[in-house]
Write a structure and sequence with these properties.
The chain is α/β, with parallel strands linked by helices. Helix content is 39%, strand content 17%. The strands form 4 sheets. Strands 6-7-3-8-9-2-10 form a 7-stranded parallel β-sheet, sandwiched between helices. The longest helix has 25 residues. The mean pLDDT is 88.
C-alpha cells in the first residue's frame, strides 16, 4: 500500500476549490502531482456525494499514477484521520480489451447504490474504452450513465471542439459541419455530458498544457465559464524541483544523429540519459537504426543498464523494469512512450532526435519529462538533434527541414515561456487561484498562445535587420491586432 504523508501546498489550495465544484479544470505541470490530486478529490467526492468515480487516461499504461495494487492512504486536507483510496474496477489491466469494455459498460449502467454497498465506486479506464462504450449506448442508457457520476479526464488537451449550442450559432452551416466532423470522439462525449446538465454529474479535467498543437478549440467559452479553474504556473513549480541549471542545445546532423548522440553520452557516463527516436521510416530511422544504437550503447554500459522501450514485444516487461528499478538504468531508448504519462524520474539528459514534432503540445510535454524532482538531480540538459540542409535536397525536402526547425524552436520558446514567463500586471486576481499581481502570456492568450508565439517567431525571422526595433514592434503590433490583449 502506498502511504502519502503530506500534500503539496498547491494541492491543498486547489483541493479547497475543486472539492465543491461541479465542473473543475486543473492545469498544473507534469510531475507536480496531478494524479494524486485527482485521486484525493475523487475520494472526497465519494464521501460527499456517493458518486461513481471514473478516471479516464489516454493509454492503459498511464493508470499507475491513479492505482496501487492494494490502496493509497492519505489524510484529506482539513480532515484529521487517514482515508484509503481503493480502485474496485480497473479497466486498464487484466482481461482482453473486449472484456474490459464490457465491464466498463456494466459499471456505467450499474445502480450506484449497489456499487456503494459493494465498495466498487472507483474505476479507471482509457479514453478509447470510454468512447467505444459510449457509441454502443442508447439515448436512455446514455442518460442513465451520466447520473450520479464524477468523470475525471486526465490529459484533457486530447479533447477538441467541445462547443455549446449557443456557440455553434456563431458559425454558418458549413462551418458547423466541419466542427462536428473534426471533433474528437472524446470531445463529443464531453459535449454531450455538459449539454445534459444533470446536477448529479461532475466533470473534472486535468492537463499540463491546455492548448492543442493543431490549433483546435478544446472548450468553447460558454462551456469553459462553467468550470472552476486552478492554474499552477510552471515557474512556481520549477522553484520546488531543486534544479539549478537547465539548458537546451540544438545539434545539426546530415544522415543520422546516432554517432553524435553516443559521443555526448560517453562524455557523461554518470548521468541518466533518455533517447527519443522517431517512428520507423520517419526522419532518419530505418530497420537498422535501433539495433545499431543499442549495440553502440552496450559497448559503453552493461546490458542491464540499457533499456529498450521501442521493440513492441519487449515493452511490457521493460516497462516493469522502468517502474520498479529506475535508478539502475543508465540509458533508456524510447519512441513515443514518453510523450505523456510515462516517467523516468532520475533522467537528467534527454536526447531528442525526433525534436521536430508536428504537435507543439506533445513536444512541450516531452521536454518536461526530465524536469521531475529527484534528490541527486541539479543539472538538466535537453539536446535537440535537427536535420541540416543539404544542396542535394529537393525543394520539398528543404521546406520540410525548415518547417521542422520552426516547430522545434517554437516548442523551446513555449517551454521557456512556461519556465520564465513574460508577466503582465493585472488589476484583479484570476477567478479561483490565490491572489496574484500578474498573469503569464499563456494565461492571457490561453489556447491561442502557440499561435501568438508562432506569429512572433515567423515574423521575426522575416526581418532582415534584427536590430531595427521599428520592424520588431510592427510584428508585435500585428500579433496584438490579431489576437488582442484582454
Amino acid at each position: 500500500m502506498k502511504i502519502v504523508s503530506k500534500f503539496r501546498d498547491w494541492q491543498t489550495e486547489a483541493f479547497q476549490l475543486g472539492r465543491p465544484a461541479q465542473h473543475f479544470l486543473i492545469q498544473a505541470p507534469g510531475g507536480s502531482g496531478k494524479s494524486l490530486f485527482q485521486v484525493a478529490l475523487a475520494q472526497a467526492d465519494i464521501q460527499d456525494t456517493g458518486n461513481k468515480q471514473l478516471i479516464l487516461v489516454p493509454k492503459n499504461h498511464i493508470h499507475h499514477g491513479f492505482f496501487d495494487e492494494t490502496a493509497i492512504e492519505f489524510t484529506l486536507p482539513g480532515e484529521s484521520g487517514p482515508t484509503r483510496w481503493k480502485v474496485g474496477n480497473n479497466f486498464c489491466t487484466g482481461s482482453k480489451s473486449d472484456a474490459r469494455t464490457k465491464r466498463l459498460r456494466e459499471f456505467l449502467l450499474a445502480d450506484v447504490r449497489l456499487l456503494r454497498r459493494q465498495n466498487q465506486l472507483a474505476a479507471i479506464a482509457s479514453h478509447k474504452a470510454m468512447v467505444t462504450v459510449w457509441s454502443t449506448l442508447s439515448s436512455k442508457e446514455k442518460f442513465k450513465a451520466l447520473c450520479n457520476i464524477s468523470i475525471r479526464i486526465d490529459e484533457a488537451h486530447h479533447l477538441s471542439d467541445v462547443f455549446h449550442d449557443a456557440d455553434l450559432e456563431l458559425f454558418n452551416l458549413k462551418d458547423r459541419r466541419e466542427i462536428a466532423e473534426d471533433g474528437t470522439r472524446l470531445g463529443k462525449f464531453v459535449q454531450h455530458a455538459l449539454r445534459l446538465g444533470d446536477e448529479t454529474l461532475k466533470m473534472h479535467l486535468a492537463t499540463a498544457t491546455f492548448f492543442r498543437g493543431d490549433r483546435r478549440t478544446i472548450l468553447s467559452d460558454r462551456f469553459r465559464k462553467q468550470f472552476v479553474h486552478y492554474y499552477l504556473p510552471w515557474d512556481e513549480h520549477y522553484q520546488t524541483l531543486g534544479i539549478e541549471h537547465l539548458s537546451f542545445d540544438f545539434i545539426n546532423y546530415l544522415n543520422d544523429p546516432l554517432d553524435v548522440v553516443v559521443e555526448n553520452i560517453k562524455r557523461e557516463p554518470n548521468e541518466h540519459h533518455l533517447i527519443i527516436i522517431p517512428a520507423l521510416t520517419h526522419r532518419y530511422r530505418t530497420n537498422e537504426t535501433l539495433p545499431k544504437l543499442l549495440a553502440q550503447l552496450r559497448r559503453i554500459f552493461p546490458c542491464n543498464e540499457v533499456l529498450d522501450l521501442v521493440t513492441a514485444e519487449l515493452q511490457p516487461e521493460n516497462k516493469k523494469l522502468l517502474h520498479h528499478s529506475p535508478e539502475k538504468l543508465r540509458v533508456v531508448v524510447a519512441c513515443r512512450l514518453f510523450d505523456e504519462g510515462t516517467d523516468w524520474v532520475p533522467c537528467s539528459r534527454m536526447h531528442n532526435t525526433d525534436a521536430c514534432e508536428s504537435s507543439v503540445t506533445l513536444a512541450v510535454q516531452r521536454f518536461f519529462r526530465p524536469l521531475r524532482s529527484h534528490p541527486s538531480k541539479t543539472n538538466v540538459q535537453i539536446f535537440n538533434y535537427l536535420p541540416d540542409l543539404s544542396s542535394e535536397m529537393e525543394l520539398e525536402e528543404k521546406r520540410q527541414v525548415l518547417s521542422n526547425r520552426l516547430n522545434a524552436f517554437l516548442a523551446c520558446i513555449v517551454t521557456q515561456g512556461e519556465l520564465r514567463p513574460c508577466l503582465v500586471p493585472v488589476k484583479s486576481a484570476p477567478k479561483g487561484n490565490k491572489p496574484r499581481k500578474s498573469k503569464s502570456l499563456q494565461e492571457i492568450f490561453a489556447e491561442s498562445y502557440c499561435d501568438v508565439i508562432r506569429g512572433l517567431l515567423t515574423g521575426y525571422e522575416c526581418v532582415a535587420d534584427k536590430s531595427d526595433w521599428t520592424e520588431i514592434e510592427a510584428i508585435a503590433d500585428r500579433v496584438i491586432a490579431t489576437y488582442g490583449v484582454p
